[in-house]
Lipoprotein SmpA/OmlA domain-containing protein (Thermosulfurimonas dismutans), 81 residues
Amino acid sequence: MVHKGFSTKAEVKEYLGVPQKIERLPDGREVWIYYDLRKDALASIPGLGEKLGKKEIEILRVTFYGDKVVDCIYYVTKPQP
């Protein structure tokens, strides 16, 4: 849904909503960051879930120059202990 060189800020906001964080870079670029913590069923069990459950954070970084998307990076990482 997000396309480099074509998608605008308004379109990204319509598709993904308001970002959790916005970074403004010295060169004029603006980075919108979206993230979501994912847990499997075991991670939801009190006490036991911390040891057996799986948690991961999905992160999407959308970079704009002016009103257009110039970069879009998606990755998954583990939460810091």
The longest helix spans residues 9-16.
